[in-house]
Amino acid sequence: MFTDAVSEFSITDHLDQLLQSVGLGRAGAACQLSFAHADPLVRSPHRLGAATAIVLAAQAVGICEIWRMRTKRTQTIAVDLAKALQSLTSLYLITMNDHAVDYRMHLGPIGGHFGQTGDGRWIFLVGAYPHHRDKLLSLLRCWNEPESIRDALLKWNSLELEDAANELKCPAAVVRSAEEWRAHPQGGWLQAKPVVEIRKLNDTAPVPFDAGQRPLSGIRVLDMAYVLAGPLVSRTMSEQGAEVLHLQSSMLPDLLGIYLDGNVGKRSAFFDLGNGEDEAKFGELLERTDVVVDSYRAGSLARRGYSAEDLAARRPGLIHVYLNCYGAEGPWAARGGFDQLSQCVSGVAATEGGFATPRLVPTYLINDYLAGYLGALGALAALIRRAREGGSYSVRVSLARSSMWMQDLGLLPGGQVRQAPERAAPPDLISTATPFGRMQHVGPVTAYSDTRAYWELPVAPVGAHPLAWT
Question: Any transmembrane segments, and where (predicted)?
Fold first, then answer.
């Protein structure tokens, strides 16, 4: 149960607990592990660096175990908490031909900000995409100007506005305390679930790892995810050799910076549901696919015959990874949401700035990255189980549950937090030639002694490749 009391902290104990929860333990001592630096690395009461480093380290243990199963070789891994923290800001550090592509520059007044409602509470509205922006402005009956939005919000009760916005499929969340959230039906449902939920869907013969130059050589991932957390699952797997094909509808809008950050190391193809030719090609793709990643609203793809169960029936041995904001079941399962909203509902924003003056974590985002890395961890754990005992598997992760897991690490002493820098130290960037131009971006965080993490492919324009495996 969450407590805001400052507690003793052991990063290795929390790593061991996470590994045990996904069935890895220390994965047969397949690696030797070390951490560098310690929180607070930025002025936040939350253990941002440790949370990110723990998940990256757990994912690295999975990589090491697969490498041992392939080659009988072990290796050492090192995770620097400072670099782990810096990875949370990678979205905002990307430059293309020395020009920034930070998507926040284009959000506008209703793009993503806190606002106070008539009952004195705070709500966060996300109108980053045109269809969300237009619906929110219509609901509020105001102009897309700060003063007009402020006046309109004061006419609403916070919880009623939250419900009304989500009824229109517009992302919105009221700031809650951690205790309020865990007493909420959705928060309570999440509290009863592990941070990474792995379920066996059916039985198959084992699929052992064959010889390969890299830990994930020969593993094919269909990335049917959108925005950031979902694409980060497959981006993380591509660091160690997985072949990834990102699928996206030709009708969906994209924010360039988000697309660039989430889709390094992949090919990209258009895939439109309802297009008979595309769906036939998808069936051919699925026959040779190991992992599918889905991050759309709960039920969106399932209604079209693309649920985890449907896909596993068509492709026995499949690993299906699903991410959303609030969890795959429960009263809020079908609500869309973003990182900022998961910080608001879970109590992170209230802890960061106070209930009367909430704010997001200093890195702005946290749960997109945690959930993406956790999804990759779950996929690796499921692949290892498939190699040993066979089966198809469902892996489920959510942004809000990731927040709750980070809270359960405990808070930092206030004196230490006040002495920490306001912002994360700037990371070293790598430079990559892409079809867009010369891209500077944050590279992989984890250091491996034998299987260096790197992306074989640069980010590709949306739809640049055929709907087929190489």
Answer: none
Q: In what order do the strands lie in the sheet with 267-270?
A: 197-202, 392-398, 319-324, 291-294, 220-224, 243-248, 267-270
Task: Identify the CA nearest to 195 among candidates 422, 18, 415, 409.
Answer: 18
How are beta strands 95-96 and 437-442 bridged, if at all? antiparallel
Q: Is the peptide bond before 40 cis (omega within 30 degrees of 0)?
A: yes
467 lies in a domain?
A: no
Residue 345 lies in a domain: no
Give the CA angle between residues 80, 81, 87 to the nearest 5°: 95
| H/E run at residue 207 | none
Cα separation of 245 and 247, whole Å?
Answer: 6
Domain span including residue 84: 11-97+192-332+360-404+411-448
Mutual angle of helices 367-389 and 399-407, in 10-degree steps: 100
Q: What pLDDT, on the 0 to 100 scale, is given for residue 317?
A: 98
Query: Tens digit of pLDDT for each residue in 372-428?
Result: 999 999 999 999 999 999 999 999 999 999 999 999 999 999 889 999 998 888 888
Q: What tokens does 235 get?
A: 């981006």
